Amino acid sequence: MLHELTADQESLRDTTARFLAATVPAGRLRELHDDDAGFDRRWWERGAELGWTSLLVPEAAGGGSVSGRPVVDATLLAHEFGFHAAPGPLLSCNLVAAALGAAGPAHAGILQGLLSGSLVGSWCLTEAHPDGHRPEGVTTSVAVDGGELVVDGTKRPVEAAAQAEWLLVTGRTGAGLTQVLVPAGAPGVRLEPMTSVDLTRRFGLARFDGVRVPAEMAVGEVGDAARQIEHQLQLGLVLLAAESVGAMQQAFETTLQWSFDRYTFGRPLASYQELKHRFADMKTWLETGHAMADVAASAVECHDPDAAELASAAAAFIGHYGAELLQDCVQMHGGIGLTYEHDLHLFLRRVTLNRTVLGTPSHHRRRIAALLAEDGGT
Question: What is the mean pLDDT of residues 265-286?
Answer without folding.
Answer: 88
